Amino acid sequence: MPPRRFNGPQLMRARRAVDVSRRELAAAVGAKSQAIVGDWEAERTFPAGEKLPAIARGVRADIDVLFPREGACDLADLRCDAGYAQFAAAEALQISKYSLSRAERGARRLNEEWIAPLAALYGVDEDELLAAQRRSFGEEVPAPTPAALPPLTQALRALVGDRFPDGAPTPDTIAAGVNSEAGTEVVRGDQVEALLRGIPAERVFGGARVARAVAITGMAGYFGVSVLHLDDDPESRVLDDLRYLASRYDVDLAARSGEGGVTPEMISLLSGLLSPGRANLSET
To answer: pLDDT band for position 251 (50/70/90)?
Structure first.
């Protein structure tokens, strides 16, 4: 199966974005020195596949965003995604490394009694483990039915197609354009690629709503569309903006009497901002 794609410069950008030093990342993944992390980022050397989950966690990134894979997993892929070296997985199951190696190489299938404990060790169900084993033996396994694409992915794909009818630029190129428009780095190439592939925004940005909102604002500016055109959760976005306005102008957003609704002060503020003379509106 295709291994996960490793991109050293993207790792460096992801690490710097969360203010993690090379020394801290090395300690988090059990590397002997920060020089090893530097070699990964310069792509002089590459980490073992089973190190990638720990590296992604160390920079607070989703592994499918930072290290994408095209295609379904075989047995070796499942093991690496669970963060186990071959000898460690065999030791955990109290089986020989040779037996596990033969199954991963498609030489001899796993013993029946190993299926359940190995699936539990890898954090998958037994059917997924058996499908991975079939792929290790070169068998065709039907791909699972794809889920519906998130609205943000659909909108981005449409915008890329409309803006670049002769061929889409690389995700890195799109990210560079977005960051130039925003005046600072708000999105990385691997994140743009993940959004285009259909990974939900909350996974791409690790649940960080501020980072997600800033990135969507930058992308909207780059493509010349409204932020709401791209936001897949416009209600939350509008509510966040209203809360920001209430805080900035020191007014209550919601009535406190238990009746609900927007306060008269907030309605007055919004009316002033929407009026032609809003530039004359002074902060309270």
So the answer is: confident
Which residues have a Cβ under 8 Å from the Cβ of 25 and sit 6 or more positions away?
15, 31, 34, 37, 55, 58, 59
**CA 59 vs CA 17, 79, 142, 190: distances in Å:** 8, 21, 34, 14
* pLDDT for 211: 87
Task: List C-alpha distances in Å: 237 to 130, 227, 254.
Answer: 43, 9, 17
Contact 231, 217 (CB under 8 A): no
Amino acid at 99: S
Give every CB contact of residue 115 below 8 A, 6+ residues apart in sequence: 126, 129, 130
pLDDT of residue 259: 60
258: left (phi over 0), alpha (psi -120 to 50) or beta: left
Q: Smallest Cα–Cα separation from 251: which of 234, 268, 235, 266?
A: 266
CA atoms within 13 A on the CB side of 11: 28
**Which pLDDT belongs to residue 284?**
43
Amino acid present at 233 = D
Beta bridge partners of 262: 254
- Count of CB atoms situated within 10 Å of the CB of 59: 22
Distance CA(174)–CA(219), nearest Å, equals 9
Bridge partner list, 254: 262
Residues 6+ apart with CB under 8 A from 86: 79, 97, 100, 101, 104
Residue 139 has pLDDT above 60, yes or no: yes
- Token look-up 């209550």 returns 252
